[in-house]
Design brief:
single chain; about 375 residues; mainly alpha; two-stranded antiparallel sheet; 10 helices
């Protein structure tokens, strides 16, 4: 759903640019509350993973394909504010390096693909997990539904933006019907990818899934044993939380719950990076070559008549291939690997800086 240059007129492009800039600024502040020393590097990985999976266009109808938008996945894994930043980093790298999504339309794309999808998906996700039983399965089901709805929501948002600033004389009702219709189908693929990814992480490390906090159960606690006296300051491990009434304090006052020790996220990070490189470097070669939902609708309805050449069309990585490499498989795979690396570097840099600013602010207050 990457909107190219020329689809939206200058005033609306500027307005959506202001909205996008405001959303990024708010998200930078909000991400300070979501990120810690373990999740900041993981957020960069989430951005790289979304970049890689967006290269895997899947067929949804005759002559039409779709790809992951990623707002739901990012919001559930690392939080809604951080999620907006993840998708924004992906869109920036795609526009600058790969000529995918117009540079003058960057505000439109961030507003539509980063802001709308993340806000809609996370609102639906939180509603479901609050009303449904607190189980790991609930997180996966809520992820599926949230992702499914977020894609047609983005299609509706694009139609609204086009109604305000579309450059071609096209009946908005027809654009709305075509966009929502095809993106409902794309939403099914988005939902499947999101649910599978979130479910896989929840199965092995639920503590790393932002949306699973408070849903998948509390971690092990450290407390004094009620069966044997403990020396002052000594604690024993228990297998889980007990009712408050059962936690009678010891005479020495040692029965104080403590947080479970934090586990390293290194294995998850390496596994995620390997998956991203595999998707971008190998699997992407087998992706559908059909135009995606927006491209198909734009061609059928005449919207693309106003499309303009991309400012980065001469980039050595334009159209997800490395210039001067004739072998299509090698060219596309190498471009994908470069894109994963660049997105990971930029995303990780942003999130580590955000985390350090939070740490600095906390130390000043302390």
């Amino acid at each position: 759903m990457h909107v190219p240059d020329g689809f939206i007129d200058a005033p609306v492009s500027v307005a959506t640019g202001v909205v996008a800039a405001g959303a990024v600024a708010v998200s930078l502040r909000g991400a300070r509350r979501e990120l810690d020393e373990r999740t900041a590097p993981l957020a960069g990985l989430v951005a790289a993973f979304i970049f890689a999976v967006q290269m895997l266009n899947f067929p949804v109808a005759a002559g039409t394909s779709g790809h992951l938008l990623g707002g739901a996945l990012a919001a559930i894994l690392v939080g809604p504010y951080t999620g907006v930043l993840c998708v924004s980093v992906v869109l920036l790298m795609q526009g600058v390096l790969f000529a995918d999504g117009g540079l003058t339309a960057l505000g439109v794309n961030i507003t539509d693909m980063a802001l709308v999808t993340t806000v809609v998906a996370y609102a639906i996700f939180r509603t479901i997990v609050k009303l449904a039983p607190h189980r790991r399965r609930t997180v996966t089901v809520a992820s599926f539904v949230a992702a499914l709805v977020s894609v047609p929501a983005a299609a509706v948002a694009f139609t609204a933006i086009y109604a305000l600033g579309g450059t071609a004389d096209v009946a908005i009702g027809k654009v709305f019907a075509a966009m929502v219709g095809v993106h409902v189908l794309i939403g099914i693929g988005e939902a499947a990818i999101t649910a599978l990814t979130v479910g896989a992480v929840v199965a092995v490390r639920p503590d790393l899934v932002y949306g699973a906090r408070g849903v998948t159960g509390r971690p092990l606690e450290i407390r004094s044993s009620p069966l044997a006296p403990a020396a002052p300051g000594q604690v024993a491990r228990t297998e889980g939380p007990e009712p408050d009434a059962a936690r009678a304090p010891e005479p020495d006052g040692a029965a104080v719950p403590a947080a479970a020790p934090k586990r390293s996220a290194r294995r998850v990070w390496w596994a995620g990076l390997a998956a991203a490189l595999l998707c971008a470097g190998v699997v992407s070669f087998y992706a559908s070559a059909s135009p995606d939902g927006l491209e198909k609708v734009a061609h059928d309805k005449g919207i693309d008549k106003k499309a303009e050449d991309h400012a980065a069309k001469d980039s050595p990585l334009a159209d997800y291939g490395v210039k001067d490499i004739s072998d299509a498989r090698l060219s596309g795979g190498l471009a994908g690997v470069i894109g994963v690396g660049a997105t990971l570097a930029v995303g990780s840099g942003v999130f580590i800086v955000v985390r350090r600013r939070r740490a600095a602010a906390e130390s000043e207050r302390g």
